[in-house]
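Q: What changes when octanoyl-coenzyme A is included in the input?
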Amino acid sequence: MDFTNKINDSAYVQVDYSIAQVAVVKIHRPEAKNALNTQVRKELAQIFSTLSFADDIHAIVLTGGDHVFAAGADLKEMATASSTEMMLRHTERYWNAIAQCPKPVIAAVNGYALGGGCELAMHADIIIAGKSAIFGQPEIKVGVIPGAGGTQRLFRAVGKFHAMRMLMTGVMVPADEAYRIGLVSQVTEDDQTIATAIKMAENIAKLPPIALQQLKEVALWSEDVPLQAGLALERKSFQLLFSTEDQKEGANAFLEKRRPHYSGK
Ligand code: CO8
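A: The predicted holo structure follows.
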């Protein structure tokens, strides 16, 4: 991939826009195993905010490249911080830009996805992992607990007993086990991780974007609302889609036995 299209010259986060309707976002801080310092998170937030509003981007791949996804929060930056300093960093604002991105996000994970790196992967909708990928929430070993959803999203993804084992021991979980417990959507050969994620993103990008955004919004709410409220939300969203041109196109294409051409309207 050619990640030349940087947001600025010193960027730790690079974006490749060369694939139609897909943005490939890559963290590039190899000297620190892609540790998520404030600057990395700022740039990620900035890019995800931009992509959220980019009408020509229908799906996003988030990766750390071929060797490491992210080895967590930057421990050097946190070592001497006080509680007040940590609070005033307001890092939730950076994370929210990713969590609230309405487009489908696919994480392509090779190597370590630890601490904040595992939490970052869990901000995605789909996780593709190379065989060498290693997931973990080792915060407890450095005297803290996860601070970007590790106790919440992990719990919801894999359930109490797998989550507690990871959280309380800091154990490193290899890709095949992560797949088995439901933390990963698909495992590939390492050299196919990013390609697999991009292929999936390209396929998703061809689908009707309004329906995809409704799907993401409604599905993510399912974790937080009572079943009846979730079902009502789903029903309303389903009904709303009958006002889109793409719904008519999808139905007509099926009836006319041809490929649909979605316009995003
Ligand atoms: N922070 C800062 N620097 C790091 C980090 C990190 N998390 N991880 C690696 N590095 C640096 C190393 O210090 C080293 O730098 P240098 O060459 O200057 O000494 C360089 O990257 C290479 O690392 P290693 O030599 O250690 O490489 P190894 O292959 O031997 O080991 C590991 C790789 C296993 C990933 C190891 O580096 C490691 O254990 N890293 C720390 C993992 C960790 O504990 N992560 C959790 C951090 S706490 C956290 O994420 C809290 C999240 C809270 C909210 C989210 C905020 C983002």
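Observations recorded in class: Residues 32-33, 35-36, 71-76, 91, 112, 114-116, 119, 138-139, 142, 146-148 surround octanoyl-coenzyme A (CB under 6 Å).
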